[in-house]
Specification:
heterodimer; A: 451 residues; mainly alpha; Cytochrome-c3 Hydrogenase, chain B; 3-stranded antiparallel β-sheet; 19 helices; 8 strands; 46% helix; B: 156 residues; alpha/beta; 4-stranded parallel β-sheet; 35% helix; elongated
Chain lengths: 451, 156
């Protein structure tokens, strides 16, 4: 083992004695990514993204003088959070893109191991914060699969109602930000205006606008509020009318059409090779939707279509999202019409706490209630994977239990993460101005990517 | 005999008060959206809640043009140096609102990845509680900051 060469003791075990370069002594350089001094120079420049590592074939015939590396993000209004891109430009043409992630790494998968199964919902709901209910549903399905409990029909129907409304609100934000990034600022205003309508219903039902912790292992936190039928009916009237407004606004707009059609094309083969799912995959023409392929929570009982595109460009992804809003509202209408009566959580007393009036009557019920909320219910040892169709694609939850009250390991298959790795393919040899259009059409949520 | 027909074309004030008033009424926020709170910050700025009523709607992409940094969301260890640099790039006078539980204290994520409170990196003027704070909470935080600037407590 090489001895540390300087008094600052900068070395990593198993490597050569590192060079202490200027920037390490000075502390920071462009981007100022490094606070610590314990990394080797080689590794740090790659991690900081100052050097783009060649991971696919480069055309060496181009003179290096023509190339310019532009850093975009992590603090940038059009990167949808804290995504950072290293873009290698040749004039106006993007030759290579390297997404750099981790700026929102929250350690949620580790945090999940310290929370009981019942508390876990508060954690997962903050992953993809535009689709919190989908995260909760996915996690709950995984826990319930290990537990082997039956969910009452009413709880399942409410789950579908809430997640499909959540899909609408998520796609509204995606469309709104897509419009804003391309320059259609009024789209931003309209999209968020209609989103408020759904969020008000969520607030009435769950108590919060986002991060609800409403869908829990074993059922739901609460039943739907009184008068929910009128609220849903208003949503079903106002959203389609608003969508028509968006269509008029955007389809008649030559700038919007010019900046989305034929831009950021990704083929079906490329999507499948990179594990891309969701509207991006469907816009490329593959009718893959987990609601049809692996139905969950009784969604197979409802009538809806899988919306697909053909060209796989930004415009098709926008069309698919608009189509999915209509399909989700179709599902919501059917759920609302045929809402079953019954309990909103499972009657299994090992999972679901006893009702309030039983606690006043029975000491055992009180003890049981206390134990469920302190230790949590025990989940049989085993591992499982549950997947649902989130607004961005396949959202999966891999869960390992060792028989205790908290998961041994929880891993999330995040759709944004898988979709983001297709960004370099999508943007190869495109114009630099189309960068934001491509990012926005992928609709990555960095909380989902980094977790 | 000259008569005063027009209303008087001047007003008197102190220089400090005029300065505080101008600081309060044109506080431009920098976009520093990080996580869930950023969505609520966007919701605050758009049509339904309309932050423009308080002269705050001009979200600037460049920190050089901004007076206020709304730290909206959880700050990871990797993001911390970036946040500090953006703060340093902002021109004086500048203020910071810590939006949400994560930015204020680390929230529910007491682990290796998150900075446990953004006040460890930058000086915070107003903390907005909530997870995430709704648009009304953020507006209350902004109005609190404006009041404090006008009262001189936070005038720079």
């Amino acid at each position: 083992m090489a001895e540390p060469t300087s008094t600052t003791d900068i070395w990593v075990s198993g490597t050569e004695a590192p060079e202490v370069s200027e920037w390490m002594v000075a502390g920071t350089d462009e981007g100022a990514q490094e606070m610590e001094r314990h990394e080797t120079t080689e590794r740090s420049v790659e991690q900081r993204g100052s050097r783009v590592v060649d991971d696919w074939v480069v055309d060496d015939t181009i003179d290096d003088d023509e190339r310019m590396i532009v850093n975009m993000g992590p603090q940038h209004p059009s990167t949808h959070g804290v995504l950072r891109l290293n873009i290698e430009l040749e004039g106006e043409i993007v030759r290579r893109v390297k997404p750099i992630i981790g700026y929102l790494h929250t350690g949620m998968e580790k945090t999940a191991e310290t929370l009981t199964f019942l508390q876990g919902g508060t954690n997962v709901t903050r992953m993809d914060y535009l689709a919190p209910l989908h995260n909760e549903l996915c996690y709950s399905l995984a826990v319930e699969r290990l537990l082997g409990v039956e969910i009452p029909p009413r709880a399942q129907a409410i789950r579908i109602l809430m997640t499909e409304l959540n899909r609408v609100s998520s796609h509204l934000v995606a469309t709104a930000t897509n419009g804003m990034d391309i320059g259609a600022l009024s789209m931003m205003m309209y999209g968020f205006r209609e989103r408020e309508l759904i969020l008000e219903f969520f607030e009435k039902t769950t108590g919060l606008r986002m991060n609800h912790n409403y869908i829990r292992p074993g059922g739901l936190a609460a039943d739907l509020p009184d008068g929910w039928e009128e609220d849903v009916a208003e949503i079903l009237v106002r959203i389609p009318r608003a969508i028509q407004d968006y269509e008029d606004l955007l389809k008649e707009n030559p700038i919007w059409m010019g900046r989305t059609q034929g831009i950021g094309i990704i083929t079906a083969d490329e999507c499948l090779a990179y594990g891309v799912t969701g509207p991006t995959l469907r816009a490329a023409g593959v009718p893959w939707d987990l609601r049809k392929a692996q139905p969950y929570s009784g969604i197979e009982a409802y009538d809806f279509e899988v919306v697909t595109g053909s060209r796989g460009d930004v415009y098709d992804r926008y069309r698919v999202r608009i189509g999915e809003i209509h399909q989700s509202l179709r599902i919501v209408e059917q759920v609302a019409d045929a809402m079953p009566r019954g309990d909103y959580k499972t009657g299994d007393r090992k999972v679901s706490p006893p009702p309030r009036q039983r606690i006043d009557e029975s000491m055992e019920a009180l003890i049981h209630h206390f134990k469920i909320y302190t230790e949590g219910f025990k989940v049989p040892a085993g591992e499982t994977y549950a997947a649902i169709e989130a607004p961005r694609g396949e959202l999966g939850c891999y869960l390992v239990s060792d028989g205790s009250g908290a998961p041994l390991r929880m891993h999330t298959r995040a759709p944004s993460f898988s979709n983001l790795q297709a960004l370099p393919i999508m943007m190869a040899d495109s114009l630099v101005a189309d960068t934001v259009a491509c990012i926005a059409s992928l609709d990555p949520v960095m909380g989902d990517v980094d977790r | 005999m000259a008569r005063l027909t027009a209303p008087p074309q001047f007003l008197t004030t102190t220089l400090g008060k005029a300065m505080r008033w101008s600081q309060q009424q044109s506080m431009w926020p920098a976009t520093f959206g990080l996580a869930c709170c950023a969505i609520e910050m966007m919701a605050t700025g758009t049509a339904h809640n309309d932050l423009a009523r308080f002269g705050m709607e001009v979200f600037r992409a460049s920190p050089r043009q901004a007076d206020l940094m709304v730290v909206a969301g959880r700050v990871s260890q990797k993001m911390a140096p970036v946040l500090r640099q953006v703060y340093d790039q902002m021109a004086d006078p500048k203020w910071v609102i810590s939006m949400g539980a994560c930015a204020s204290t680390g929230g529910m994520f007491n682990n290796y990845a998150l900075v446990q409170g953004v006040d460890q990196i930058v000086p915070v003027d107003v903390y907005v509680p909530g997870c995430p704070p709704g648009p009304q909470s953020l507006m209350h935080g902004i109005l609190t900051l404006q009041d404090k600037v006008m009262s001189g407590e936070l005038a720079r």
